[in-house]
Amino acid sequence: MKDLETRADIELLVNTFYGKIQKDETIGYFFNDVALVDWSIHLPKMYQFWETLLFGKVSYKGNPMSAHFPVNAKVAIEKHHFQHWLQLWTETVEELFAGEIAEMAVYKARNISQLMAHKMAVAKKLE
Known about the structure:
- The protein is an all-alpha fold.
- It is 76% helix and 0% strand.
- The chain has six helices and no strands.
- Helix 1 packs across helix 3, helix 3 packs across helix 6 (100-126) and helix 4 (64-74) crosses helix 6 (100-126).
- The chain is globular.
- The termini are far apart.
């Protein structure tokens, strides 16, 4: 397997991952039923997000936290949800790619999931 190297690789990874998410019984409802995600808008943002994180090409301009707080206010996004998200992400990366950037994709996702789980829990306590 090859490493993540191009925007096309990011798109393959993101599309494959979110294809799983949309069908997932544990966290799919956050996207499909609570947030009512418009995939034609969300997926290009995720391409930019991961391209920025992994390749240093600053194409993402947004705040991932602010997008999740309204969802969390409706239905608590708990630590186990983020752990499941990370598990699906890791599986997808490992199915498609191998190498330093692929490992970085998993590492960064782990950090993101931990930070977001913490911030969502704090937000729920403050409600």
